[in-house]
Amino acid sequence: MVVGLLGIVSAHYDVPRSAASVQRVREHLLTGADSFVPPDTDGTNGIKIGIQYRFFKVIKVDLASGQLVTKVWRRMRWMDHRLSWDPADWDNVTQVVIYPGAHSGGAADAIDNNMWTPQVVVYNGITPQDQIMEDGAAWVTYTGAVWYSTPGVIDVSCRFAGLSAFPYDDLTCPIEIASWSYSDLVTNLTFMDDRVCVDLTTENPTAGTTYSEYVLSGFDCKKNTVTYPCCADTPYTALVVTLELKRSSFFYALVIIVPGILFTCLCFLALLLDASNVGERLGFCGTMLLSIQLLMIIVSDLVPSCGEMLWIDLVIWCNFLFCIITLVESCFVIHVVYRGVGVVQEGLGEFIDGWARILIPGAYVICISTVMSMKMDDGYKDDHAFTRPPVDKLAIGGMAPMFSAMGKPGEGSYPKFTFLPEVVIAPILVALSIAIYIAYKGGVHSAFHMKVLNEGGAKLTLTVRNSLQVLAEDSISQTFEKQIMRMSPPEENQAEGQAEGSGGLRQRSGGLVQSVAITAGDDSAAGDDSAAGDDSAAESSPTSMQHVNATSV
């Protein structure tokens, strides 16, 4: 397209050209002209100004602030009969080049600045046009046709649509271009009839971008004509160019999504630890929870702090929730196993952990697969119809329909969710896994073991209590023996007392180990006899207690 434009321009110089004649034509056209006065109009139709934008490359996309910065070439075309002449009177000069702008030729009072150019502004622009648009050139032919091309930068505040699917989103950003001071009766803005409204070609070696997050994938052009209460009979037209940007999502999947899923799966490994590893189990779950919290902080710097629900929020909160569930389950199991001083129920804790090892990861697989197969629509793309409410509503501060992602009364609320057909695979697999687990355990009754576990837990609790009682009595006995030995001066009695005390301690220790080992087994009869022997020993003297503990087991 650029080659064709240069060909049209150079066609006017295929004959000998006199520089003096060109200078005289320029002085003839621009001397005494007023750059603030537009050409003549008939009062019904304004000057038709065709506009085309070539988007050279994307410079910056800031979702948190809603900013889009692009490098553009702006092209405009119109007719100005004040700039026409007869080539026969000017040595066959058919075209001149004018450089309008405050810095033309290095002088602010250059005659090029007397040329009138359309005052075109970007309504949602952040930086003023005179600061970001460079000095271009205007090619003027003898018929009064003007082709005005200027390079520059468009810095706009975007009303992004499609961000709810972050990071697998295709964003759209509308750019509204209009004349700030003139209505359609003076300057009638429109897109060029013989050209596309937006040029996205990358024929130039410096056009386009590489190793970038966003790429321009499409566009949409519309005209939005409105009237205002001050002048209801005067139309004002704005050109709305909606750019489509496609994101490269591989980086976010590699840095945020996959690590979050791995951290959650690592958190499930704490379920493999028994309740005796209290510190390791709780510390491991807490570390994974802090890792997912770090991912939340990273995402908060990438997306705006808004009230809309984003897809990435569902992914992170799914991971965060199941890490909390695992941590709560660990705390509950530890509470059940170590319910109080001398109370240990390892059988019941192992029963809870056994089912948690299959139910919690299975529920996570269903949750995360449902989120991964979900597509979210924020509804903002539907608001780009560019319709306006009636004039009477504009007079009282009404607005065009927008922000439907927060919900419309009577029309449902956004965001809207759609699911892929693959969403049913995960629940089926989880259900099959649970069925296989129950079958492996020998049926539902064998898998629960409620009666056996209760009996085993009661026996173990009774054994530990009796063992603690033996240790307490042994400590009292040793203290009593030391008092006797201090009162008896002969060394023989002291040696015998020490031997007897050491033998009694070894005897009680051996009885304690045997009692715990036998009672923790599967022989219920032996456990009952041990409990009865311990009860009878508790009612007798310390010496008889030692004898019962040594012989009853």
Structural summary, described in words:
This protein is α+β, with helices and mostly antiparallel strands and about 550 residues long. The protein folds into 3 domains: about 1-250, Neurotransmitter-gated ion-channel ligand-binding domain (Acetylcholine Binding Protein, Chain: A, Distorted Sandwich); about 250-380 and about 415-450, Neurotransmitter-gated ion-channel transmembrane domain (Methane Monooxygenase Hydroxylase, Chain G, domain 1), CATH 1.20.58.390; about 450-550. The protein is built from 14 helices and 13 strands. It has helices at about 1-10, 20-30, 130, 250-270, 280-300, 310-335, 345-370, 390-395, 425-440, 445-450, 450-485, 490-520, 525-540, 540-550; strands at about 45-60, 65-80, 95-100, 120, 135-140, 145-155, 170-180, 185-190, 200, 215-230, 230-245, 375, 415-420. The strands form 3 sheets. Strands 1, 2, 3, 5, 6, 8 and 9 form a 7-stranded mixed beta sheet that branches. It has a 4-stranded antiparallel beta sheet with strand order 4-7-11-10. A hairpin with a 2-residue loop joins β10 and β11 (about 230-245). α4 (about 250-270) runs parallel beside α6 and α12 crosses α14. The N and C termini lie far apart (about 100 Å). The model is unreliable at about 1-15, about 385-410, about 450-465 and about 495-553 (pLDDT under 50).
